[in-house]
Amino acid sequence: MDELKYTWPEAEPNLTVKGKVGIGTKTPSQELEVIGDISATNLNLNGSLTIDKNLAVGGNFQLGTLSINAFSSDGNLADNSNLAVPTEQAVKTYVDNQISTRAALNGATNQNFATNNLTVGGNLRVSGNLEVQGDVIARDTEHIEGNVSLGDQDSDEVKITGVIRSGHSSGALRIDDALHTTGSLTVDGSISVRDAIATAQLSVTDLVSGSIKIENNLTLGGKVGIGTPNPRNTLGIRATRQSEELISFEDPSGRTKWHINQNLGGTNPGLNFVETGVADGRFFIKAGGNVGIGTTNPEAELHVIGKLLGAAQDTSGTALRICCGKTPEGSTNWQPYRGGTKGIYVDVDTSACGFKSTPIYLVNMHGNGSNWGATGGSSAYDRTNQGFRVYVRFSSGEDLTPDFANSRGWHIQWLAIGN
Asked: Whole-prediction pTM value?
């Protein structure tokens, strides 16, 4: 194309062209088509501006009365593009009308949306996965519907500062799998091992401190140690001092009625059965084998302080049995002899002794008065292995009745020796 050199007359300020004008092209497709660069000091466009390719702005540009720093774009401002806005000055966007109820960011799988800080004043909904590589701080109550999975390795930790509460319909915190704690577990309320499973168990390997109340049955398959972690026998009790009350027996009101002491030191060591607050040494087993009844210092294999009533048997082969007793003082079943007033008698029952044959009876009558003048109280008649009879009368021939004898406390004491 030949260059047309022409100078426009200064007296004619306007140029009117009815067809298309091409600069750098012979076949313009628009009213004005320029092939090449355009240089203008000021460019004012009253209509729309369509840019099919890139737009580069080397400096600042102004939209209306708003000054905005220079920015660059890859050619479009769609949701699948990169947009860089410099931050030397504040960047503001004003929208007079609603743009859309949603802003979609449909980038490719290898594209990222990056921001330093993101503030959401309303709700944030994520339909896919949400990955957070830093810390997540929730200031208020968090509601998560459905299942929640935390961690993917055995070494991962979940730390909670505060209290865990249950929203389960049962009101309890339900844990369906085994619970293993390497630290201490404190339960301020009740702990229950139950359900219909016969194998439900509570296993404690080391130590249970504090009080344990068992309202129903307790079945122990192993050994029980009180004061010791290693009992030798089914029940082992270890003292903490040389002299100590080991076992107590209480009444329904909680008062101790009996207790057992263990005395390991001193001059008289042994095991002492005590009627609490009443008498010491009700039954005492002294170290070495002596047994005391009514004494805490038995000096023989059997040492009794008090009255002795009962039976003894020699099991060495002779089957010797010793039995003793007495009739009640003041209420002995005296009977008038032959219905008269000249004497009385009483039948003494010894069947509880279990003699197989008639034993030897040693008999004596005791009383509180007038018995010294009576005769017959030391003689046993009608002797059998079941008992005997004693006749008593006054040697002076005075009248003697059962009422008189009981008023004086007359009674029979006896000792039987047999087999």
From this structure: 0.35
